[in-house]
Amino acid sequence: MDLVEGHYPIEAPAGVPEWDVDPFAPEILTDPIDYYTELRAKGPFAYIPKYSMLACGRYDEAKEVFSDHERFVSGRGVGLQDFKLEQPWRPPSIVLEVDPPYHTQNRRVLARVMATKAVQRLKEAFRIAADDLIDALLERGSFEGVGDLAEAFPVNVFSKAVGLADADRCKLVDYGAMVFNGIGPDNAIRQASMAKVPTIVPWITEQCRRENLSDDGIGAEIYAAADTGEITEDEAGMLIRSLLSAGIDTTVTGLGSALWCFANNPGELERLKVDPKLARPAFEETLRFTSPIHSFCRTAGVDTEVGGVSIVEGTKILCVLGAANLDESHWTDAGKFDIQRRTLGHLAFGIGIHGCVGQNLARAEGEAVLGAIARKVGRIELDGEPVWRPNNSIRALDRLPLRFHTA
Ligand code: OVM
């Protein structure tokens, strides 16, 4: 049987409408809202003939598929390729792209080194770095929101927290883009990213080695788990690779989108300034409203059924988290950016055993930056048109020209 994007082709299940759309077309990736709306209107699932897969954009089904790791596995890849049938571009992640029981021991190590208490120790450094950065940008007035803030901040603080010897911003951001594009089909966007493999992958591998990490960071703590025999030395290196895969572009995107949200909603910035403690809920609402990771797949490991739809083993299901987080039947005024909304249950960090293990660290970064803005910035002005950077699984800005005005 011929494969489609590295997975078994399927027929549309009974009752599921066919939809002749390319969810990975640049026009959709850079401006997805109408696509999200139409996907939800199709029903619990749509069948996408171009990729011979199902897509779900409603909250309930996206959540059901995403949280049931027994029926919907990750070990066959969370992109379009089925790792049972084709070899992926890099050795699979030992946390993202595996199932229990192997997943459990690896995740436990990451969960420990990024637990609330571990993150607590980093908060003061994050606050100081955010205050310094916002002061410097206020001094400059106009700046590039993506490069000068959204990328600069995580590259600085996350690299230090991990203990990287060399925080090459371009390589870290491009590696993340490669990992997230790698989850999509073999389109021009993916190919352009993959062209950088020969220069970036060896550099990343080098950064993951024990001798290249500081002895007081998260990286060293992961290697400590190899010393006690909890994991092997190679597994420790692979878990560092996961940090560098998932920890930069996601937070870059969340911070960039937060700036975009506030530039477009000056009334919400006013509310944040009145009560800077809203920095944390404001970051959470940014995640719900913009969904930095717009979609991830699961693979049906068994014949099953969801929302009355029969799903055959081997089916790839595109869970469109961006659409679920804007589902009007779950969220009141879903399309409104409201920093005081109850955001509990949003799917931006995923859910279940694969839910983002770094989410407390990500929140601490968002809180530090938005807190500094709340206390220091009077007004945020768009200083040109925002430009989006199409990516097969993240909804990222490419450029965001901004001007900060003092209070
Ligand atoms: C990993 C990995 C890569 C991308 C995303 C992710 C959102 C994890 O390499 O483990 O989680």
Walk me through this protein's architecture.
By secondary structure, the protein is α+β, with helices and mostly antiparallel strands. The protein has one domain (26-405): Cytochrome p450, CATH 1.10.630.10. The protein is built from 17 helices and 12 strands. The protein has helices spanning 26-30, 33-41, 59-67, 102-113, 116-120, 123-140, 145-162, 169-182, 188-194, 197-207, 218-227, 233-246, 249-264, 266-274, 279-290, 321-324, 359-376, and strands at residues 46-48, 53-56, 72-73, 142-144, 295-300, 304-306, 309-311, 316-320, 377-382, 387-389, 396-399, 401-406. The chain has a 5-stranded mixed β-sheet, with helices on both faces. The protein has a 3-stranded antiparallel β-sheet with strand order 4-12-9. 51% of the residues are buried. Bound molecules: 3-methoxybenzoic acid (OVM).
Name its key features.
5-stranded mixed beta sheet; Cytochrome p450; 47% helix; binds 3-methoxybenzoic acid; 407 residues; alpha+beta
Can you count the beta strands?
Answer: 12
Strand order of the largest sheet: 1-2-8-5-3
What can be said about the biggest beta sheet? 5 strands, mixed
Instruction: Give the terminus-to-terminus CA distance.
Output: 64 Å
Report the C-alpha radius of gyration, rounded.
21 Å
In quaternary terms, these chains amount to: single chain
How many structural domains can be distinguished in the coordinates? 1
Averaging pLDDT over every residue, what do you get? Answer: 98
Q: What's the CATH topology label?
A: Cytochrome p450
Fraction of residues in helices?
Answer: 40-55%
- Percent strand: 5-15%
Classified in CATH, the superfamily is Cytochrome P450
CATH architecture: Orthogonal Bundle
User: Overall 3D geometry?
Assistant: globular
Q: Give me the number of helical elements.
A: 17
Class, according to the CATH hierarchy?
Mainly Alpha
Q: Report the bound ligands by name, code or SMILES.
A: 3-methoxybenzoic acid
Class derived from helix and strand content: alpha+beta
